[in-house]
Write a structure and sequence with these properties.
Distance between the termini: 64 Å
Largest sheet: 12 strands, antiparallel
Number of domains: 1
Strand content: 25-35%
Helix content: 25-40%
Structural class: alpha+beta
Number of helices: 7
Number of strands: 12
């Protein structure tokens, strides 16, 4: 039999449970109304659909479940299991900080979709009919420094790869009016630092296997040929630091496990200038790119497993 003191405590506990449940229901409903209003304002209510919204009252994390992206032609759609908004800037036209994860982004490669880049369909050649991506993005826009600090950009597919990166971009302009008046602003953007970690989850194995088949070679013959050519290049390289980096790439090709790259740039890397060199090279206006010069100014530390 429950005494009065125990009954009182249980009553208070149940009261708070009901109160929290009611508060969560109210917050979920209010958040859903705000999301629906924003989608309508941006004319996306027919393009982005979702099943439910949930708000964590302690962390303020917002979760959307069972999202459907519908193409403008209404002929195809993409499915996402869950989108979680951890933190984001609610002020201004361009968010100064944003942290989101997209889980279970399903891409069916057996049917054509206007929302899937044609490059992705190239994976079918290596035996992939369906891929499921998990993506996390966390960035901070430092307006005074004109920097975009990408603290996390992680892309995972269990059968392909895991890419975990972070980098800092310079000369990034956050004023919408300037961006609209200067459509080529991105040519002035520089890469100031970058960390990249790539883990092979099976893609490299399938590329080797398919490439060997196309050349009527065994897998051992094909990988041996690649390693042989790379080792010849390593032997011919005079720069010890570049030689070390190439040796690590050789290890990654042999073991097919993981490779990490970390920049040690002496000055910001001009993305526009490099893109211009590639453009001239593609039109044969430039014979070759001086990679040794790039390596002196923009060395990269490479480690492989």
């Amino acid at each position: 039999m429950i005494n009065k003191k125990t009954g009182f405590i249980l009553g208070i506990f149940l009261f708070f449970i009901i109160l929290l449940g009611g508060a969560k229901f109210y917050v979920d409903r209010l958040t859903q109304e705000k999301i629906d209003s924003k989608l309508t304002e941006l004319h996306l209510s027919d393009t982005i659909k979702y099943e439910s919204v949930s708000v964590n009252l302690l962390t303020q994390k917002i979760s959307l479940s069972n999202i459907t992206l519908v193409s403008s032609k209404q002929k195809d759609e993409l499915k996402i299991d869950e989108v979680i908004f951890y933190d984001y800037d609610k002020e201004g036209e361009f968010p100064k900080f944003f942290h989101v994860s997209i889980n279970g982004f399903q891409l069916e490669l057996n049917k054509k979709s206007s929302m899937i880049p044609s490059l992705v369909y190239g994976l079918k050649e290596y035996g992939y009919d369906r891929i499921v991506l998990d993506i996390e993005i966390d960035y901070l826009l430092a307006v005074k420094e004109n920097e975009l600090r990408l603290k996390t950009l992680k892309i995972n597919e269990d059968q392909l790869f895991t890419i975990d990166s972070k980098f800092t971009l310079g000369n990034v302009i956050a004023q919408p009016e300037i961006l609209r008046s200067n459509p080529l602003w991105f040519l002035e953007v520089t890469l100031k630092s970058a960390d990249l970690d790539i883990k092979n989850n099976g893609l490299l194995d399938n590329i080797y296997k398919r490439s060997a088949q196309k050349q009527n070679l065994t897998l051992e013959q094909y990988t041996g040929f690649i390693v042989y050519r790379l080792q010849k290049s390593i032997e011919a390289e005079a720069d010890p630091k570049l030689k070390q980096a190439m040796t690590e790439f050789d290890k990654f090709i042999k073991n097919k496990k993981e490779i990490k790259l970390k920049t040690h740039f002496k000055k910001p890397f001009s993305i526009g200038k490099f893109a211009g060199e590639l453009f001239l090279l593609s039109f044969k206006e430039k014979k070759e790119i001086d990679w040794s010069s790039y390596w002196k100014d923009y060395p990269v530390e490479v480690k492989a497993k």
